[in-house]
Amino acid sequence: MTTSETADTAPDHDPAVIEALLEAAVTRLRTVGALRSEEVERAVRAVPRHAFAPEFPLEEVYDPRAVLITRRAEGGGATSSVSAMWVHALMLERARLAPGMRVLEVGGGGYNAALIAELVGPAGSVTSIDIDPVVTGRARTFLADTGYGGRVGVVVGDGGHGHPEGAPYDRVIVTVAATDLPPAWTDQLVEGGRLVLPLGVGGYQRIYAFTASGGALLVGETGNHAGFVPMQGEGAPAPCRARLTDTVALVTGATPAPAPEALPGVFALPVHQEPAGVRIGGTESFSTLQMWMTGLPGFGLLTGNAEDFAHRPMARDGTPAVWDGATLAYLLCPEVPDAAGAYEFTACAHGPRAEEAAAALAGHVRVWDRDHRRGPGPRFLAHPGLPDSARVIRTRHTRLLALWDRTEADHGLDWKAYPRG
Fold it and tell me: With pLDDT > 90 as the criterion, what percentage of the chain qualifies?
C-alpha cells in the first residue's frame, strides 16, 4: 500500500483493544521515565495515535518503542515517520509546554502537532512545517479527521528557515535529525524560550533542550539517544565520507577532511594497540564516553563490522576515531577472556605516530572513567561567536562548547558580549 493510499483507508478498530493497548503503553512510559507529568499523560491519552498511522497494526502503533516509517525515498531510506511513543513523551516533557504558548514544529506528520495542541490549549498556537508536500498533505488529512484541523497550521517549506510569519515562538520543537542550529530557530524564539531537537554532535544523535538565556543557548542536560530521519533542504547533513577499504570508511564533519586519500595506505599499516584498563559490562551504556570523544580534534566515526577490525567495535558503524592526516587512532572494545560479559576499551592506531596516538586515546578514556563515567554528561553552550578553542565544535551556523564540569556554567564568558542573532 502506498503512502497516498493510506490517508483514505483508516480501518475500524475495537475501542476496547485500543484502550487496553494505550493503558499498557502509558504504564510502560511511566516506568521508563519518559512520561512524568499529568499534562503530557493527558495529551497522550487524548490523541488517537492510530489515526495518524492507519496502515500499521494497533499492536505496533501503541508499542512505546516502535518507530512507524510512513515515507521513504527512492533508495529506501526513511524520510518521514511517526516517532516512538517514548520519544514523543520525552521531548514534550523537556519542552515544558504550557497553555497559551506559541509553538513551531519542524518536520511532522500530524501526531506530534496534535499532542502539542492538547498541551497549549485553545489559547495557544501550533504551526507545523515540513518540506515534503506529501507529508503535509497527509498531516492535514489526519488532523482534520481527528478534530485538530482548526488548531494546527500546516505549512509546506524548508524547516531550516523556520516560519517567520508566525514568529516569535515560545517553543521550537524539531522532529527531524539536525546537525546544526540554523539562525532562524533562535531568531524566532522568545527570550527564555526553549528549542528541543535531536541534534547530531560528531555523528552521535541525542535529544537536547536549549534555552535562550542571556544571549546564549544552553542545554540543561544531555538527552537520550534517538534515531530521527535526517533533515532535508539546506539543513541536510553533508559529512565527508572517506573510504579506507571496501567495507570501512571514515565519516567526519571536518571541512575539509585532512588528506583523505592517505587513509587506505595508513589503515593497511600494522596496528599498535593500547588497552585503556577500563572495563564495561555488556549492557552498560557508554553514551557519555561517545560524547566525551567528540571533543577530540579530528574526530570522526569509522563504519564497519567486527570482522573489519582487530577487535569488537563499540557500536556497529559508529567506531570513534581521530585522524590528523597521517595517523589514524580509534577505539575498540574486545571481550575480556577471564570475565564473562565484560569488555575492555582498547585504543588502536596506524601510522607514524601510532604509539603516541593510541596512548593519548587510551588516556582520554581513563579521564572519562575517572571524572565523567557516572555523570549525566555535558551541557552545551551554543553561539556563533564563541571563541575558537580545542573544546569548541564548529558547525555551519554555530559553535558548540561542551561543559562537563557542572561548576563551569559560564566558562568565564561575558554573555553580554554574545548577543542573540
Answer: 58
